[in-house]
């Protein structure tokens, strides 16, 4: 579609755009309860950590169809995508590459075991059935284990929020032949909670490969995805409950290789399930769960099979929490996870197992001071043991003012691909490849004013040692001897890469009818040789202006600016949206992405959306 052409289908929207500022979610709310920081419910302001909380309401008000589009607005978070919806979308936290981010959906680890670096691809993850997201920044392996070097993302599906039977439906359509819909059903009583969501999205897309200026003659790359999620919890007694959560998604999308338009297709199927039991005895609570995740990817080039990959992850975990007093709580647990991958080079599968135990003390020596200390020990079936730790504190220095700091270590176990190689492509196995290790430090302050304004500032630093790199032909020379007949392998490289910077967030009411939100991140990310890392902007800025234009009409204007990357030019993108309430539970929406039709790229050689218009409707009953 030419960038100057604006077409839309007057179908109805998945989410109205009326608006409390989406960036306001980045500023600490003093009574906000989070789970990710300490693996037990805690007031965010008392954790000493940097956590962004995104709710279903935030996502609906922003109107983004794709989760990564919203997450890119958060402080410390960067997203790059190789084309339209469905194509590879990678997320970084504080300049740490996607392989350093652990991602969970409803307690199920969803990083792809078949990938080269076993990272999660956000390209087909929509906002349709998401109820809450917590983004925890900094190294968190002391509680979350391997890969939590840059941070952790915890995604929770929608749940029934009111008693009795509830339903909701939404549909949206617009530019690039996009149609998206969602239906949700929930039921809640004193003992039973259950929910079900079915969503579907289809788009003709635009060309993944593109030039600057864009070439409208290139073949568009479309996608189609269907997702089903389900969850239930039943309280047998006041002290015992059983539950299950599950999801399944099928995705088919076109994609292009580097430097050329191509007729490539990937078909992906994935599902995950978690079965859990909860019980409490005295001053202790306990959770035991079993999880399973499976993904298969089949790739085709011009209709010819070009690779088939299957990955399976099975997990077992236990966690206990004992509140000894109002000033001391102990969190403790153990977990074990087995990963297996199958492909042409591993027809019988290659697998690893990692098991860990952890303990965390939560101290409150005085009412205004909270301290947490965590320690974890992991054992990997390939490289042996590794220890991680974290120390964090939060001080309520004055009414509305919180001073905080944290120091932690993290690690990332090598992926199955990095360990077993791929003889089809001349990549040798390397049984000696070991874990990547990190150190993370941060200090910050959050201030909430009486008039509703709030601000947050964080200084951060992450070091990574023993980074796993690709070496051999068309790469740096290998230190590890290459076996005969092989040209490449993955090995640990000497030296230390560094990522440091600051995060600034703010929310400012402009009278009674408007709000201004801000998120800014400065990042200086460098490899061991001192060169800046690609795909990490030095400056990232998000602004939003939300206003109530009448009793029924609200609007939003948002801006995202990226500057100082080494591989693409600076860019600024502006989006706009409106929502009109047709009734108490029904709203009509209009949104415009890339309002000024800016031509830009987030990955060199890959396109982005031109001006696009979407119309939609949402209702609940």
UniProtKB/TrEMBL annotation:
Subcellular localization is given as: Cell outer membrane
Q: Which UniProt keywords apply?
A: Cell outer membrane, Ion transport, Membrane, Signal, TonB box, Transmembrane, Transmembrane beta strand, Transport
Coiled-coil region: none
Task: Please list the residue ranges annotated as the TonB-dependent receptor-like beta-barrel domain.
Answer: 178-595
According to the UniProt record, one GO cellular component term is: cell outer membrane
Instruction: State any GO BP term from the record.
Output: cobalamin transport
Signal peptide (UniProt feature, chain positions): 1-20
- Read off the PROSITE patterns from this record: TONB_DEPENDENT_REC_3
Could you tell me which residue ranges the TonB-dependent receptor plug domain spans? 46-152
Topology of the protein relative to the lipid bilayer: Multi-pass membrane protein
Q: Which family does it belong to?
A: Belongs to the TonB-dependent receptor family.
Annotated protein name in UniProt: Vitamin B12 transporter
Species of origin reads Gemmobacter megaterium
């Amino acid at each position: 579609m030419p960038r100057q052409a604006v077409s839309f289908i007057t179908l109805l929207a998945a989410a109205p755009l009326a608006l409390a500022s989406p960036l306001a979610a980045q500023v600490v709310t003093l009574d906000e309860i989070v789970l990710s920081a300490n693996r037990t419910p805690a007031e965010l302001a008392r954790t000493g950590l940097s956590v962004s909380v995104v709710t279903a309401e935030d996502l609906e008000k922003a109107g983004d169809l794709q989760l990564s589009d919203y997450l890119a607005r958060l402080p410390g978070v960067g997203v790059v995508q190789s084309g339209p919806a469905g194509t590879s979308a990678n997320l970084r936290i504080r300049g740490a590459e996607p392989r350093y981010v652990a991602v969970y959906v409803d307690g199920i680890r969803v990083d792809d075991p078949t990938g080269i670096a076993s990272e999660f691809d956000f390209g087909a993850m929509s906002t349709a059935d998401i109820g809450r997201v917590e983004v925890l920044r900094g190294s968190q392996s002391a509680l979350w284990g391997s890969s939590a070097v840059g941070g952790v993302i915890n995604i929770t599906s929608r749940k029934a929020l009111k008693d009795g039977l509830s339903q909701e439906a939404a549909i949206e359509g617009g530019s690039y032949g996009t149609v998206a819909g969602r239906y949700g059903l929930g039921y809640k009583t004193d003992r039973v909670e259950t929910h079900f969501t079915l969503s579907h999205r289809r788009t003709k897309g635009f060309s993944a490969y593109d030039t600057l200026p864009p070439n409208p003659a290139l073949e568009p790359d479309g996608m189609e995805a269907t997702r089903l999620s389900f969850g239930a919890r039943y309280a047998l007694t006041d002290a015992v409950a059983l539950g299950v959560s599950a999801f399944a998604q099928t995705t088919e999308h076109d994609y292009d290789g580097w430097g050329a338009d191509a007729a490539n297709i990937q078909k992906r199927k994935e599902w995950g399930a978690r079965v859990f039991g909860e019980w409490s005895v005295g001053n202790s609570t306990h959770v035991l769960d079993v999880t399973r995740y499976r993904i298969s990817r089949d790739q085709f080039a011009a209709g010819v099979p070009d690779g088939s990959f299957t990955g399976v992850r099975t997990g077992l975990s236990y966690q206990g929490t004992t509140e000894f007093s109002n000033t001391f709580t102990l969190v403790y647990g153990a977990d074990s996870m087995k990963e297996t991958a199958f492909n042409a080079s591993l027809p019988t599968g290659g697998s690893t197992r990692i098991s860990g135990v952890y303990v965390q003390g939560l101290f409150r020596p005085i009412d205004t001071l909270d301290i947490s200390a965590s320690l974890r020990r992991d054992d990997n079936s390939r490289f042996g043991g590794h220890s991680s730790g974290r120390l964090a504190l939060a001080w309520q220095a004055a009414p509305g003012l919180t001073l905080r700091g944290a120091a932690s270590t993290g690690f990332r176990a090598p992926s199955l691909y990095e360990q077993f190689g791929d003889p089809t492509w001349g990549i040798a196995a390397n049984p000696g490849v070991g874990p990547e290790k990190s150190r993370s430090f941060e200090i910050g302050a959050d201030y909430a004013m009486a008039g509703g304004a709030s601000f947050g500032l964080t200084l951060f630093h992450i070091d990574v040692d023993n980074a796993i790199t690709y070496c051999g032909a068309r790469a740096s020379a290998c230190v590890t001897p290459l076996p005969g007949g092989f040209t490449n392998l993955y090995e640990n490289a000497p030296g230390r890469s560094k990522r440091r910077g600051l995060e600034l967030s703010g929310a400012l009411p402009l009278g009674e009818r408007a709000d201004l939100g801000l998120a800014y991140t400065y990042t200086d990310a460098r490899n061991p040789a001192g060169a800046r890392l690609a795909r990490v902007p030095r400056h990232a800025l998000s602004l939003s202006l939300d206003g109530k234009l009448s009793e029924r009409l609200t609007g939003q204007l948002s801006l995202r600016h990226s500057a100082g990357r080494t591989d693409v030019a600076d860019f600024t993108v502006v989006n706009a949206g409106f929502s009109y309430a047709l009734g108490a539970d029904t709203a009509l929406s209009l949104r415009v992405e890339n309002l000024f039709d800016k031509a830009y790229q987030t990955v060199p050689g890959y396109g982005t959306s031109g001006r696009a218009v979407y119309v939609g409707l949402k209702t609940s009953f």
